[in-house]
């Protein structure tokens, strides 16, 4: 019980929420209101128990606690604040019979506890105030109507509780706005990182392959010219030029894929295959733009790898639909010459990233048997429809 009460004290409404006129009024005008009510109570005080000095002492003590409650919560611990509130309620209740304006101190005490303390604590302090004021009334006055006055004064805690609830609502709203802003910033950072990753893949897929191929061909041509084989060197230069043209075509296809809302997969894939390469593209139905773009890029990556590492080898591209998935396979046989290890390896990494981006599956590895034994196989299964279009530039 005590530990629960302590938690409530520590989590009480320490500071009013900003931005409301009532909070500004309470913060700036309360010292003046307290002073005015205290002066009026002292000027109109009646003897308590036949002793005038006792009235002044009680009102002065009540005023002291009234001023103490205005000390910022950051300067007082929860127990010190509770002690101030209890002292204010008790002294205001005892001074209840010291005159008409002394009643205002009781009203101030009830409103105070309702404003700053949790409902359970506020109700307990209000009951304490009403009980002390009732006892003071019973000892110092025979007027039965003051009982009703005391009870009505106890209801002054309700506006305080309403004010506290409004402050809490404003504070929670401000926290919600802040959290929303933080979430939006986090989403923006995540989107920026995803965009950077996407651009890195596009740069690699569109430029790195072509440029690396051109570099290899030019190095070969240089060696052929130095070896006194100009005809072979010129043929190699022509192949390098063809790679440049192919790279430009790939760049145009990539830009077109990014700009278009939908991609005609059979037509686009048909433009990508070269003579001697086999393409099978069955009826695919409705394919999402994100999936279509990734199918194009994966096939392009696989074809580029096959042409680089297995020149002259047979290549088969198969794209088909199976239920809610688009399944693709690019398989090539062994090349006439030993495979080059000049690649960066980022192409296969890019394929894996693209597949995982759409929660798909992939199989990449050598072919051990069958028509294409000794070659390489890239297979993937992607969802036909996906909402991850934002990560694919569409």
Automatic annotation (TrEMBL):
Molecular functions (GO terms): ATP binding; phosphorelay sensor kinase activity; protein dimerization activity
EC number(s) given by UniProt: 2.7.13.3
Transmembrane segments: 53-70, 82-109, 121-139, 145-162
Reaction equation(s) it catalyzes: ATP + protein L-histidine = ADP + protein N-phospho-L-histidine
All copies of domain Histidine kinase/HSP90-like ATPase, residue ranges: 294-384
GO cellular component: membrane
InterPro entries membership: HATPase_C_sf, HATPase_dom, Sensor_HK_TwoCompSys, Sig_transdc_His_kin_sub3_dim/P
Pfam families on file: HATPase_c (PF02518), HisKA_3 (PF07730)
Assigned keywords, A-Z: ATP-binding, Kinase, Membrane, Nucleotide-binding, Phosphoprotein, Transferase, Transmembrane, Transmembrane helix, Two-component regulatory system
Domain Signal transduction histidine kinase subgroup 3 dimerisation and phosphoacceptor: from-to ranges: 195-261
Protein name: histidine kinase
Species of the source: Flexivirga caeni
UniProt lineage: Bacteria, Bacillati, Actinomycetota, Actinomycetes, Micrococcales
């Amino acid at each position: 019980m005590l530990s629960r009460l302590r938690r409530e004290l520590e989590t009480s409404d320490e500071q009013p929420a900003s931005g409301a006129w009532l909070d500004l009024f309470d913060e700036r005008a309360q010292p003046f209101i307290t002073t005015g009510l205290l002066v009026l109570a002292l000027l109109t005080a009646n003897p308590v128990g036949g002793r005038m000095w006792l009235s002044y002492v009680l009102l002065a003590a009540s005023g002291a606690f009234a001023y103490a409650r205005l000390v910022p919560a950051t300067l007082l611990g929860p127990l010190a604040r509770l002690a101030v509130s209890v002292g204010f309620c008790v002294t205001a209740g005892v001074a209840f019979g010291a005159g008409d304006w002394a009643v205002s101190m009781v009203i101030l005490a009830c409103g105070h506890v309702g404003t700053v303390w949790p409902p359970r604590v506020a109700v307990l302090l209000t009951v304490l105030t009403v009980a002390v004021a009732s006892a003071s009334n019973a000892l110092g006055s025979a007027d039965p109507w003051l009982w009703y006055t005391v009870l009505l004064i106890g209801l002054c805690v309700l506006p305080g509780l309403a004010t506290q609830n409004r402050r809490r609502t404003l504070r929670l709203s401000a926290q919600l706005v802040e959290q929303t802003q933080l979430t939006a910033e986090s989403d923006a950072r995540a989107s920026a990182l995803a965009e950077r990753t996407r651009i890195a893949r596009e740069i690699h897929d569109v430029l790195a392959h072509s440029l690396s191929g051109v570099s290899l061909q030019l190095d070969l041509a240089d060696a052929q010219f130095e070896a006194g084989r100009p005809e072979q060197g010129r043929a190699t230069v022509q192949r390098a030029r063809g790679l440049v043209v192919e790279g430009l075509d790939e760049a145009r296809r990539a830009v077109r894929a990014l700009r278009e809302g939908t991609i005609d997969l059979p037509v686009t894939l048909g433009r990508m295959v070269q003579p001697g390469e086999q393409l099978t593209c069955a009826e695919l139905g409705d394919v999402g733009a994100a999936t279509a773009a990734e199918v194009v890029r994966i096939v392009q990556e696989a074809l580029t790898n096959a042409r680089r590492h297995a020149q002259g080898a047979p290549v088969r591209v198969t794209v088909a639909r199976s239920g809610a998935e688009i399944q693709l396979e690019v398989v090539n046989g062994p090349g006439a010459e030993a495979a080059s290890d000049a690649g960066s390896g980022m192409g296969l990494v890019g394929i894996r990233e693209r597949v995982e981006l759409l929660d798909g599956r992939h199989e990449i590895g050598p072919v051990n048997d069958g028509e294409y034994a000794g070659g390489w196989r890239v297979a993937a299964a992607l969802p036909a429809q996906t909402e991850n279009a934002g990560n694919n530039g569409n």
